[in-house]
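quick one, 379 residues, struct below
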Amino acid sequence: MHPILPGATIGIFGGGQLGRMTAMAARSFGYGIRVLDPDPTAAARPLADDSIVADFNDVVAAATLARACDVVTLEIEKVALASLQAAALYAPVRPGAGVLDVVQDRGRQKAWLTQHGFPVGPYRLASSTESLGEAVVALGDSFAKSCTGGYDGRGQVRLASTAEAKTAWVWLGEKPCVVEQALDLEAELSVLIARRPGGDLVVYPTAFNHHEERILAWSVIPAPISATLATRAQEIGRGIAEQLGVEGLLAVELFLTRDGSLLVNELAPRPHNSFHATERACITSQFEQAVRAVCDLPLGAVDVVRPAAIINLLGDLWQEDRAPNFARALRDSAVRLHLYGKRDARLGRKMGHLSATGTTPQEAVERVQVAKAALTAGG
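---
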């Protein structure tokens, strides 16, 4: 294989904030950018040389994207396999359809992880009200998650008894779902792996994540956990990336239970919200690393230079004609603002994030929390 050198063009399926920040990194390397996204106002469009407004299942548009690119990648898992296959006729697609085939369906993903010996929590598959109720009987307090679609807490519901099965089944759209036993959690962690087509890979330091309403609220790198536990998490992530044969990035979300078990929650073959802090914490950000990996360039170092944390800014901050006071939040010179250029500040929508560094992970988290509080404070 030969590296795809700067001056070439990278195509991106998806023009959200992840595509935008990947495009920014690619631009700094001198690459051209083309984007395909159904949203004509997608966040990445101002950074692209050309944009295609089309659904992710439009195979003709996918082929058109790839014809003008030297390599194609993605920032969202919702791209139809047929579109990835159509694009692959004209340019390398990294990650490829084989990876997405495993990841796109939570049922297939769980089965693949189990088959390959990776630890997951107790679960059942359900395809009807009856089988959903049977799963709750077997598992007890559970979460039912749609096999396809859904993110940031969408497409999932908690069930404490079989009496809730019918309502939950209708709420989930009467579609197949994975029913996962509710776990006694100590923490939520994630690891990020970057892998070149030839197999070279690097594993980022483990991130520690805090969710609110099933949406990531804040994350910090490195995770304030023991070196032994961090290494275990990284080894799980490395093994999954190698078995899947990922080309590009793979984020592995993990549950740490109170009895010390590490269990795989979900996989994401793209840049990940919990690793935005790599822009401040690590020698090489996840976005630059994505560019290096899909272009088959030597991978960058992932050492932590200084602990860093991020905190998400949701559309809630812009409601009722309010405008966040960013000047107040930036009074701390260690805080940085990252806005995604989105126009519609809907409730729960990720509009940007704040980042902060510190001498310790705890200090970084505290600084970014104080900065966020300042966005809406008086005075």
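The CA atoms of residues 315 and 344 lie 8 Å apart.
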